[in-house]
Amino acid sequence: MKRTSPAAREAAEMLAIQALSFIAEEPERLGAFLDATGLTVERLRESASTPGFLAGVLEHMLADESLLLPFAAGAGVDPTEIARARSTLGSR
Known about the structure:
By secondary structure, this protein is mainly α. It has helices at 6-24, 27-37, 41-47, 53-62, 65-75, 79-90. It starts with 5 loop residues before the first helix and ends with a helix.
């Protein structure tokens, strides 16, 4: 199994943090994310430091084209880059 470079992992984490910020910008998007994950606003910060959280953010985004496409356009990335970042975060 190919090991992910630290630079690729860091880039994927930064993209996931951007995605989380995008989700949190609007109460409706944040509410849908919290509902899907079972988290509360209070537990969000605590959960953000757990392994797999950032991969889960990207997974949530990939599952909803109405999030994926505007985020990708705003971030200036191709949606496939988000899928690659998700894959990178899923491997150690």
